[in-house]
Amino acid sequence: MDDNTRNTRNKECIEEIIRNTFEAIQDAYNYQTENAPKLDSPNRQRLSRIVFPRKRDDTTRISEQELRFVFVEQMNKKINEGWDVFYSVETPTRDPYKGFRKGETPRQDESGRSGEFDLVIFNNRLERIALIEFKANNASDHEHLKDFVKLNNPKEGDVLRYFIEIVKSYDMGTLSSLRSKTEGNKPIFRCWSLDEGKDITKDICAATIKE
């Protein structure tokens, strides 16, 4: 298998994992929330063992942690089907950065320090093939920019780059906000809304940014 074929195969696998992740996390949101568990049939096929935990105010916590762990669950299923890859979490970047504190401007800077990628996928030669960042709930401009500064940096390698996000719900304001934060960036962007149970990536790309 040549490099182009491998790259195509890797992208296809990651795209499938993302689709399965969204399906599984939606199923968990529907049935496996600590503050409102549903007594479904024990014969129902559970797509994930993740539970959305209850916060002190009795609301459901939705965070990037649920997204990340469900993604890893689905990736391990794909590995068991024969996709020969490895992974690491909170993986140090190859290039140094500054401005990751609130109120600063995130940027590549030779006098800075290493950042981290949420997840890195490796081939069976332990070479990086994909960098992945996860986000939830339409986080701030600064939080998005921190990740995109790393993902847009060519010095991080000739690899696939993904930015995957979940939100509880959305309206036109949410779509415009997310478009303004993600438009023009190189990583492949995917976003899912839990209340609506749908992939809203195309809606975000088509949204009109509010002036």
Gist of the model:
The chain is an alpha/beta fold. The protein has helices at residues 3-31, 64-80, 141-151, 172-182, 201-206, and strands at 86-98, 107-108, 113-122, 128-136, 160-167, 188-193, 198-199. Strands 2-1-3-4-5-6-7 form a 7-stranded mixed sheet, with helices on both faces.
Describe, in plain words, how this protein is organized in 3D:
This protein has 211 residues and is α/β, with parallel strands linked by helices. It has one domain (3-206). The protein is 35% helix and 24% strand. The chain is built from 5 helices and 7 strands. The chain has helices at 3-31, 64-80, 141-151, 172-182, 201-206; strands at 86-98, 107-108, 113-122, 128-136, 160-167, 188-193, 198-199. The chain has a 7-stranded mixed beta sheet with strand order 2-1-3-4-5-6-7, sandwiched between helices. The longest helix has 29 residues, at 3-31. The N and C termini lie far apart (49 Å).
Helix share, percent? 25-40%
Strand content: 15-25%
**Count of DSSP-assigned helices:** 5
Q: How many domain units?
A: 1
Most strands sheet: 7 strands, mixed
- The coarse overall form would be globular
> What Rg is obtained from the alpha carbons, in whole angstroms?
18 Å
Q: List SSEs in N-to-C order.
A: HHEEEEHEHEEH
| Average residue pLDDT | 93
Distance between the termini: 49 Å
